[in-house]
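Kindly inspect both lines:
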Amino acid sequence: MRLVVLGGGESGVGTAILGKKKGYDVFVSDFGKIKENYKEVLSINNISWEDEKHTEELILNADVVMKSPGIPEKSPIVKKLLEKNIPVISEIEFAAPFTTAKTIGITGSNGKTTTTLLTYHLLKQGGLNVGLAGNIGKSFAWQVAENKHDCYVLELSSFQLDGIINYKPDIAIITNISPDHLDRYNYDYNLYIDSKFRITMNQTEENYLIYDNDDEAISNWLANHQIKAKKVPFSITEKLEQGGSITENNEININLNEQNFIMPINQLALEGKHNVKNAMAATTVAQLMNIRKATIRESLSNFQGAEHRLEKVLKINNVQYINDSKATNVNATFFALDSMTTPTVWIVGGVDKGNDYDELMALVREKVKGIICLGVDNKKLVEKFEGLVDAMIETTSMTEAVKIASKMAEKGDTVLLSPACASFDLFENYEDRGRQFKQAVQNL
């Protein structure tokens, strides 16, 4: 069996290693450059590879192709594979049959990284032998090859879910759905929503789907489609018989199979309404996995959040600097602005993925005193927000953006990097953008 891997990054190299171990004839092809450390790993494992090109005769003879999530379906080589009816799958789909470990699959437009890390933290603190993979951490396939874990918490993007055929998580979570990556879905929001719900398409009556009952897109989809999995909703606005709700005393209450878990919201390590929901989702998993309540409580109160997600960097001259570089869509920035309690200087911009900024207007009027546009093309932002704030400045350098912000901000204010856009115009990725912000703040 010939396995061709498109993309020589973490998921690609992990898949190649697992494929090799399972007796496949493996070839890795990357249209960009493969990093030196990955080249070394491939060579040590006697796996042939190429980079900066796709050689068709070495690819189109595959029995199965694993495509990295970053490569769009529209790319010429993928189109040719699909024309030849060669299965093009994701790393998760390839690796899942080779493990008997339980998997918890987590998707959503926002909150999935925090929910994934929090779920992993709860299960690990509860003594389970658990791995962390998917869009985060070490490649799932690589970990399956090393056969180390009894269960995995997987952060799954819509692109990874597009590449599944038979994979089914034992427990699935959809944190929320809002327009994102519409450029990859022909600007059709319904296609993107369907993509997220692929997480439950193979689930059976023995599996669980945990979801945000307050989310309009999720509720509408579930009202119009049958699923087999047991539904476990959570809500911060209404009382639910089964699942997660908020009590009159401002506690989260997870009611599952006659078992109740209660904890005051003010004891959660994470702040903000959206994080109450993330905590409910993670806690539901922990309860289904029979983690002790005392352990869950302790873990929820000592959890350190995700880097680049509302990360407090420094307070300088009584101005708080916050790195929310991971906010690559409007909805994520909505959460960030919504959680601000002081006048805010907002650094925004980058590669726009078909953003609609209308839902931010009220929050910008209420919370934002100055806007710094950090992107190659800021026209849309300027047209939208000019006149709503006292000052609006454009820049293409993080150092300059932070310097201007420090001049705009007064004692008691917050400087928030929450770009609402992808980072590829000026940075390698959102992590690079976040690190440059933190460096620039430290250099003030």
